[in-house]
Amino acid sequence: MASSPSTAKRPAETQDATSPAKPVATVRYGDVSAAIFAETVRLPSGTEVTTHRVSLRRSYRDQQANEWKHTHVLGDSDLLPAAEALRKCFELIEERRRS
Hints:
Helices cover 20% and strands 36% of the residues.
């Protein structure tokens, strides 16, 4: 999908509508972004572990309203940027686990 020049600003990085917390990191490749959310959970054994979830979304500009919107539906030209964003998320999560 070709992008046209725009004077409209991209939306600020915000949490995903289904996520209760702020992301610990956000990765963007073109119009595709992935946000990493971390949550500490207590196992039945009493041990606390941190789990991670990733939310993937695509930004687009609504031509009629001239504003930025988001979707979780990707087009074929979004697949490689999405794969790269997810790869980077994997690396960041692995770094968090090692530290």
